[in-house]
Amino acid sequence: MNRAVIDPSWDDLKTFLACARTLSFRAAAKKLNLTSSTVVRRIGALEEELGFKLFDRLPNGVQLTREGSRLVASATHLEQGAFDLQRRIETFDPDKRGIVRIAAMEGLGAFWLMPRLIPFQRSNPMMVVDLNATDRLVDVSRMEADVAIQFAEPDNPHVVRRRLASLHVYPYASRRYIELYGVPKTKAQMMDHRLVDKVGSGQDNGTWPNYLGIDDIEGIVGIRTNSSAAHLYAIERGAGIGDLPTFASALAQDLVPIDVGIHHRIDVWLTYHPDARRTPRVATMIDWLISSFDGSKFPWFRDEFIHPSAFVEFDSRHWQDSQAAGYAAAGFSKELP
């Protein structure tokens, strides 16, 4: 008697790979935007189809069985083939129609890219721009995004990587805060002020202690948040002194740089799959993103540090997409021209 042909569902295999990478049914469900019960059901169905266990269930997650470990490489090969097929199909459309998915660090995505994406999309009406503003690193080789902007240098040898710009970070306070508490002149005087602290997976959470030369900043932090929008709002509304990209001076009249010898530079990286440029709409987006971080147009992205006071009256003729506005929603009192 011939053995029945094994034909596992591709959805089940994708679920298996997510579980193998996270070693957690719950984390895999979150990654796939599924319920945990759906993940458990799919893994059970795949194990029944294959005739062997893929995972040992543990109190704090799962671990691959020997058979499951052997299956990972083959399933990954199938996954990559599916991605390659999808990229190839998308190159057949000569028009710039369809979705372009950008992943960008939350602050850059919300406060730098989005105001410029609005006029960009108006100029490319057949294109749907999907901006994922997240501090989580995404894998462009697995099509989690078409193009990503991140602070960490990509270490995948199979993707294109380009250093886009330097992001200079500087302490700021609002005029409202300064009227109440004054301006610190030294790092030592900063200890008598309140800090607004930004934390998160894409952040260096030891930045403030390094700035001030202390082990712990507890006791001088007034507000801590993992949201760039909340961080900016708190500083602008007078909650304390916080570090912001220096282009904040070009966007907000109420923010004042605090000169106490603190400055931090962060590399900004662009990454995408080598085949991405074969798709016209993605190639257009890549070129636009590169121009959006051009230091000759936007001096705050140059490698050399320029004091943010130089940007307060920055010539609006040099702004790209200068009709973009909307920063008042985040508490800014000054809009782009």
From TrEMBL:
Any GO molecular function: sequence-specific DNA binding
PANTHER family, alphabetized: HTH-TYPE TRANSCRIPTIONAL REGULATOR, TRANSCRIPTIONAL REGULATORY PROTEIN
Alphabetized SUPFAM superfamilies for the sequence: Periplasmic binding protein-like II, Winged helix' DNA-binding domain
Family (UniProt): Belongs to the LysR transcriptional regulatory family.
Any single biological process term in GO: DNA-templated transcription
Designated name of the protein: LysR family transcriptional regulator
Domain of life where this protein originates: Bacteria
Domain HTH lysR-type, chain residue ranges per copy: 8-65
Gene3D superfamilies from the UniProt entry: Periplasmic binding protein-like II, Winged helix-like DNA-binding domain superfamily/Winged helix DNA-binding domain
Source lineage: Bacteria, Pseudomonadati, Pseudomonadota, Alphaproteobacteria, Rhodobacterales
Keyword line: DNA-binding, Transcription, Transcription regulation
